[in-house]
Amino acid sequence: MELTTEQEATEQTKTEQTYTTTVTGYGSEGEGVARLDDGRVVFVRGAARGDILEIKLIRERSRSARAEISRILTHSPYRIEPGCPVFPECGGCDFQHLTYEEELDAKLRRVNDALERIGGQSARTEEILRTGRTEGYRNKAVFHSDGQTRGFYCSGSHRIVPVTRCLLLKDDLNAAIKNPAPVGEITLRSGRNGVSNTPEEELDGLVFEITGFFQINTDAALLLFNRARQYAALSKNETLVDLYCGVGSMTLFVGRDAGKAIGVELDPAAVETARKNARRNGLSHIEFIAADAALWETETSNPDCVIIDPPRKGLSQGALRKVLELSPKRIIYVSCDPATLARDIRMLEGYAVREVCAVDMFPRTAQVECCCLLVKSGR
Predict the structure, then answer these.
(1) Which of 4, 189, 214, 216 has the fewest CB atoms found within 10 Å of its own CB?
(2) What is the DSSP string of 32-71?
(3) What is residue 14's DSSP assignment?
(4) Axis-axis angle for helices 338-347, 100-117 (nearest 10)
(5) How confident is the model over 17-68, as pLDDT tens digits?
(6) Residue among 227, 24, 199, 167 at smallest CA distance from 109
(7) Partners of 202 in the beta sheet?
């Protein structure tokens, strides 16, 4: 019987047949990418560029498949022994099996490929800002407990992998994981004042309460904020607008150079924290407004610079229209997803990419942060 297109696209059950293939690169989730003899792309978790593998397909579609490693026939020169005993079972890391240099190269390739293929941009970056620290950097942990097992979810499922120490977490968070915990999801945050109900961080002399959204890597956040401040290049006779401002950390960090700055955030609780942070740091020229970035009504026309740091899904059509309506001289776009960044850049008509850099905010994972400067065409 001939299969319909819909049936062909349906994921199939795992088979026992094995295939031999060579890994040539990485997917957006950190999987190794290879091709089967029939031309299909296959994604293999825990693979390294240059590996020659014997693989077993676990999910199939008409044009692609996912596989697991049955046997490594030839080891990639970039492959190392993972330092974590629960990798790759735990879903927290993607690149524990790679040299750090290969990880950084993979992230740069991902950013540049998105800019060219999705964004239609000739702009590239060879620069990825990093602290050099690949362990003990996370200031936030989200772990799970069923009353007996405490740890993190297994990759691709809600099965809990027992974890007593995570290489990525700060020491005080690792200590807290061992404490008795209620059933369910537990979120802990560590600041300069330790694991606290009201954690705070200090960046370049500014102190922030970080009860809302804040970058999970404080040292890398400083690199990102400094680059955004450099790109913004604000003076005291200029105005900054920061959309999706969260608790106002970047608004305050960059906006201290401006004559006026406005942070816009949908979450009222985050806005209250942002206002508290502004008062704490004596930045009375910076205000915060609780509003949807796409629907915000403003009397501030043509700000000199707009910062946008949207969720992973990128800008909505309404938010895109709002940015174009504001018509700033400069746009700083901060993104944790190169694909949506590239897509939105293409939609920001009348603006050209002047500079772009990557930031290794999440070492040993496939995630990469980007910071991009766009200027109004003709300037």
Answers:
(1) 4
(2) EEEE-TTS-EEEETT--TT-EEEEEEEEE-SSEEEEEEEE
(3) P
(4) 30
(5) 999 999 999 999 999 999 999 999 999 999 999 999 999 999 998 889 999 9
(6) 24
(7) 207
> Smallest Cα–Cα separation from 243: which of 176, 163, 328?
328
Q: CA angle at residue 332 from 329 to 335, to 5 degrees?
A: 155
- Partnered with residue 240 across adjacent β-strands are 261, 305
Return the closest-CA partner of residue 112 out of 364, 362, 356: 356
Length of the chain: 379
Q: What domains are there in the chain, each with its CATH number?
A: 5-74 (2.40.50.140), 100-134+215-376 (3.40.50.150)
The model's pTM: 0.91
C-alpha–C-alpha distance, residues 369 and 21, integer Å: 31
Please, what is the Cα angle at 123 between 119 and 128, to 5 degrees? 105
Q: Give the mean model confidence (pLDDT) for residues 176-183.
A: 77
- b (16+ CB within 10 A) / e for 289-321: bbbebbebeeeeeebbbbbbbbeeebbeeebbe
- Are residues 42 and 35 in contact, defined by beta-carbon separation less than 8 angstroms? yes
* 282 contacts 291 by C-beta, under 8 angstroms: no
Judge whether 90 counts as a catalytic residue. no
Q: Locate 216 and state its tokens.
A: 């999970």
pLDDT at residue 11 tops 50:
no
Q: Which of 84, 90, 166, 336 is catalytic?
A: 336
